[in-house]
Amino acid sequence: MIALKNTGIRIVVLLVLQAVWLETSHSQSPGSPAIAAEVSKQEAIYQSQGEKVPVGYVTDRSLLAYASILSSEFDRSLANLGPTDRWLDIGAGEGRAILDYYTPRYDSMHQGGRERRGRKAQAVAMSIEDRRTPHWHKTAASLEANKIRYLSGKRLREYSLEELGQFQLITDVVGGFSYTRDLALFMEKVLAFLDLNGSFYSLLLDVLPENGTNRALYPDTLFLTELANADGADVSVCSWLKGIACAEVTCESRTEAKRPIEIIRVRKICNSVSVPALVSLQYQAGTPPRRRFQLREPSPGQNSTTR
Ligand SMILES: C[S@@+](CC[C@H](N)C(=O)[O-])C[C@H]1O[C@@H](n2cnc3c(N)ncnc32)[C@H](O)[C@@H]1O
Description:
Layout: H1 2-17, E1 20-21, H2 33-47, H3 63-69, H4 73-79, E2 86-90, H5 96-101, H6 104-109, H7 114-117, E3 122-126, H8 134-142, E4 148-151, H9 161-164, E5 167-172, H10 176-179, H11 183-193, E6 194-205, E7 225-228, E8 234-235, H12 237-242, E9 247-256, E10 259-268, E11 278-284, E12 286-287, E13 290-295, E14 304-305
Parallel strand pairs: 2-3, 2-5, 3-4, 5-6, 7-13
Antiparallel strand pairs: 1-12, 6-10, 7-8, 8-14, 9-10, 11-13
Helix pairs in contact: 1-3
The structure holds S-adenosylmethionine.
S-adenosylmethionine binds next to helix 10.
């Protein structure tokens, strides 16, 4: 357990150190040349190959890395999935975490739930660009048809419920949740694709912690994902998530190398989901990008913090 925690800390430190941004952008209004330039820089990151892949763009994290980075509940949630259940990994990169799930080593490390798991859940890897490796193709060919699927060429927001269906478990490790330009639509989609009682596990790097902490406490932090209320005062991502109707949200704030990280779990508890709307104020290409959003309307019960 201690070894796992230490691995987790090392991985989190690695995650933090890998954050890289391209040069600063200036004022951005929707459709402006400035935003178009950032979008095209970001697209170049997605499509980069070989030596052109930026150092911070990690696409091959293992399932052990996922379990170390995400909420401690994730490992159990995955191990408890049965053969008719489904797991979606948004922003899967090479899909290595999914491949690790199908190994005998996974079963030997997860004796609990093994009987129930049987032939294991179906898993879907989603990535904008196709980063499948020979290892992916070999594993897919060795499993029953469609046991693992790799979807590429589109972003999460471009898929319909009819195309994807619903999932009991959705993960996102520095994928769409960290990269999207439309955080509110992203969460609407995640919750639409989640089955009732299903859970979404993710994290955000360099983000204001949930408990109303003043940003002055982080003088060295360049916040990656920022939210403001209608008056321009800071709002934590976690308190915004907690304003989503039909979502039970748990956040765990960690500080690694003096940099704040929020580990997030969202469980869908009813079907009338409603996500508080956000307007995008800034998007700066990077790994992950820097983003600033503003709540369209003041939402009751949201804690704001002073800048
Ligand atoms: C840095 S890689 C992370 C890969 C993997 N999770 C890992 O930890 O190794 C980012 C991934 O997120 C994907 N991505 C970014 N925005 C996305 C979106 N809106 N919808 C789906 N995938 C997205 C990228 O295409 C890429 O596969």
